[in-house]
Amino acid sequence: RCYRYAFLLMVLCLLHTEPNLRIFVSFFAVNLRSGAEQKVVFITARVHPGETPSSFVCQGIIDFLVSQHPIAKVLRDHLVFKIAPMLNPDGVYLGNYRCSLMGFDLNRHWLDPSPWAHPTLHGIKQLIVQMYNNPKISLEFYIDIHAHSTMMNGFMYGNIFEEEERFQRQAIFPKLLCQNAEDFSFSSTSFNRDVVKAGTGRRFLGGLLDHTSYCYTLEVSFYSYVLGGTTSTVPYTEEACILYKSILPFECT
After folding, report:
1. Pairing mode, if any, of strands 22-25 and 38-45?
2. DSSP symbols for 85-124
3. How would you classify residue 97: left for phi > 0, otherwise alpha for psi between -120 and 50, otherwise beta?
4. Model confidence at 113, in pLDDT bands (50, 70, 90)?
5. Average pLDDT over residues 34-40
6. What is the DSSP string of 198-211?
7. Apex CA 173: angle with CA 167 and CA 179, to 5°?
8. Which residues form the active site (predicted)?
9. What stretch of H or E contains 155?
10. C-alpha torsion angle, residues 132, 133, 137, 142 (rounded to 10)
11. pLDDT digit string, tens, across residues 198-235
12. Engineering a disulfide at 58: which of 3, 45, 107, 181 sits with its beta carbon 3.0 to 4.6 angstroms away?
């Protein structure tokens, strides 16, 4: 089977947060054939407000997908991206490092988010569950973008499954990222089902969605990456922190 990644969907979706702050999650669709199955990649970012590199990565993905690059055009003709660029607007507004206005680490509450205490998470989860239950939509990938304060390079966290074949298939994506992005490290990528992480988006959705969906946490270092085969470190800047090349679509059989 060929796995195609996504195009860009953005609909104006207004989610209210506790201090009357608002988050606009934009989606738009282009050239989707009437009646065709929608193949969707859902991307979220900035659930931890202090992890600012995740916003630069997300911005890079959006900039590429709306560009005139030939690959971007192919994506727009065939696939759908849904992007929620900021899951914790309260925390970002207040300058918090990890928690929301209400003091919650939102990335531990995917199992049962409250519409009052975790409104953005509650809204996004409802949207994902609705898509999952829609026979005309195939949710191919979920990718949650974070930043890491101690490790270098870009890398991923993935899930462990009892089915060996499913586990092996989910390792293909980060391996291909490693081959195509000089700052992505497969050796730093890990697969786990740590109890502490059970409430994260990657863990919750990995248990909810079926074997045709793939769920990951994408991490990018706060400060630098090491060039493969060398000891040279390259600092991330706002411009260099655009990891869209790591998420470029490809086809694999």
Report:
1. unpaired
2. --S-HHHHHHT-SS--TTS--GGG-SSS--TTTSHHHHHH
3. alpha
4. very high
5. 77
6. TTSHHHHHHHHS-T
7. 130
8. 219 (proton donor/acceptor)
9. strand 154-159
10. 0
11. 899 999 999 898 888 999 999 999 988 888 777 788 88
12. 45
Structural domains in the chain plus CATH codes: 8-247 (3.40.630.10)
Report the residue count for the chain: 253
The catalytic residue among 140, 182, 219, 251 is: 219
Angstrom distance (rounded) from CA 171 to CA 191 = 9
d(CA 52, CA 46): 7
Highest mean pLDDT, choosing among 36-50, 67-81, 93-107, 191-205: 93-107
Tokens matching residue 29: 């669709």
> What global pTM score does this model have?
0.84
Q: Is the pLDDT of residue 248 over 70?
A: no
- Known catalytic membership, residue 162: no
pLDDT above 90 coverage of the chain, percent: 49
| pLDDT score recorded for residue 12 | 28
For range 165-172, the mean pLDDT: 89
Residue 13: predicted pLDDT? 31
Cβ within 8 Å of residue 173, ≥6 positions away: 141, 156, 214, 216
Pick from 160, 147, 159: which is nearest to 236 by CA? Answer: 147
Q: Which amino acid, residue 164?
A: E
